[in-house]
Amino acid sequence: MAPPPPPDALASLDSLIQTASALLLQLQAALVDVHREAPESPPLESAAAPSSPLDALALARDAASLIRAHGTKLSLLIINEPFTPSAISSVVRDLQSGPVPAIVSAVQACSSAQYGATVRRELALQCRRVLAELHELLQNIPKDGKALVGNKASASASGKEGGIRVTAILWSACDDVIKLTKLGAAGLYAEKTRQWGDMLQDILDELKEWGEEESDDDDDDEDGDDDGDDDENDDKDDNENDDKDDDDGVDDLTDQLGEAQISTQDMIDDLINSHHAIPRNDPHGIRPRLESTLKRLRLVTLLYRAARLRRFSKLPSPPSTVAQPAVPSRLDRLAQALAKLPERFEDLAGAFYDLQPADIDAAVDQCFRDALAASDLLAKDWDGADDDFTHWIHRFQAEIKSPDGPAR
Questions:
Q1: pLDDT at 239
Q2: Segment Disordered: which positions (predicted)?
Q3: Is residue 240 assigned to a domain?
Q4: Among 30-34, 239-243, 384-388, which stretch is predicted with the lowest mean pLDDT?
Q5: For residue 308, is it within any domain?
Q6: Would you say residue 262 lies in a domain?
Q7: Which end of the chain is more exposed for a tag (fewer CB within 10 A), N or C?
Q8: Residue closest to 204 by CA, chosen among 352, 102, 89
Q9: What range does the domain containing 76 cover?
Q10: Are 147 and 81 in contact (CB under 8 A)?
C-alpha cells in the first residue's frame, strides 16, 4: 500500500481546487448572461468586420477537445492508486491556464455581427455546460488523500463509479460542443429548422386525425334516460355489492387511495375527451376551415424542408463577410420567424378543438401572415439576388394567400 501524501500537498491541492472551482462558477455566470442576451437589436449593418476575424468555432472545438483530454487524465488520477496530489494539481493548472479560458474566449469571439445571435447563444449554452461538468469533476477529487477506488468510506455514488459517471457526462458535454462546431452556422440553422418543421408536422398529423373523428352527438341523444328504472335497480345492486366489500375488510386508507386513483383517471379522461369532434351537421362551418388549413399547413411544412435544402445548405461560411454584412441580421430574424410558427399553429389547433369559429379565423389569419413573413426572408439568396428558389417562394405565397388553400 502506498504511503499517504503529505498534509501540505493535500492542503495545496485543496486550495487550488477551491480557486479553480470559483473561477469556473464565475465563467459559467458570464456565459449564462451571453445565452440570455435578447436576440433582438441586431448589430448595425454598417459595423465593419475585423480584418482577420478569429475562427470562434475552431477555437471552441480545440478547447473542448483539450478539456475532454484533461478531464480523462484527472479521472484516472483520482480513481487509481497511488493518489498523487502533485500530478492532479498539474492537470488542474493546465486547465486553468489553457482550455478553460480559451473556451470562454471562443464564445466572446463568436459575435452576433459575424455569426448571428442564434449561433452565439447556442455556443454559450453548450460551453457553459462543459464548464459546469468540469466543476462537478473537480468536486469529486478526494480531500483525504485516498483514491476513490480505495476509499472504503465512499458511497457508490461518490466512489469510483461516481467519478467515472461524472467524467462520462463531461465527455458528452465536450462532444456536443465539438459537434456544434462541425455543424457550423449552416448546420445549426438547418438542424433547428428541421426540429421546428417536425413540430409543425406533428400538429398537422394531429389536426388531420382529429378531423377524421366521428361525432357521437346522435348516439348521446339515443342514450338518454330511457332506462332510468334499470339504473335505479343497478344502483341497488351496486349498494349491496359495496356492503359486501366493506364486510370483506377494505379499510379507509385503501378507499382513499382508490378514490385518488379514480380522480386521476377522471382527469386524464377529461383531457383526452376535451377535443370535441366536429358535429355531423357542422353548423359553424368548422370542416371547410379545417380542410383549407390542412392544405396550407402542408405547404408550410414543405417551406421548412425547402429552406434547409435551398438556403441553409448554401449559407456562406463564415456567415458574415465584408461583402455580406446583412446576413447575420437576416439569419436571426429568420430563426425567430421559423421558431414562432409552431407555437402559432398550436394555438390554432386549440381553437379548432374548442370549435370556436371566430378564434379559428383569427388564428388562421395570424398563422399564415407569419408564414408569409418567414417566406419573405427566404425569397432572396444570401447575396440578395433572385434565383430559382425565389420563384418557388412566389408560388408558395400565392397558394397561401388563396382562401381555399392550394389546389390539389
A1: 55
A2: 211-253
A3: no
A4: 239-243
A5: yes
A6: no
A7: C
A8: 352
A9: 7-45+53-182
A10: yes
Sequence-ordered alpha helix ranges (H) in 212-251: 217-222, 228-247
pLDDT by residue (tens digit) across 219-244?
Answer: 444 444 445 455 555 555 555 555 55
Note the pLDDT tens digit of each residue in 159-216: 557 678 999 999 999 999 999 999 999 999 999 999 999 999 999 999 999 998 876 6
Alpha-carbon distance of 299 to 200, in angstroms, equals 11
Grid cell listed for 78: 483520482
Together in a domain, 15 and 114 = yes
In a domain, 360, yes or no: yes
Angle between the N-to-C axes of helices 56-79 and 117-139, in degrees from 0 to 180, rounded to the nearest 10? 10
382 CB neighbour count, 10 Å cutoff: 17
Residue 308 shares a structural domain with residue 394: yes
Give this prediction's pTM: 0.77
Residue showing cell 429548422? 193
What is the number of domains present in the chain? 2
Burial of 121 (0-12, 13-18, 19+ CB in 10 A): buried
Same domain for 202 and 108: no
Question: Residue type at 388?
Answer: D
Q: Cell 469571439, residue? A: 109
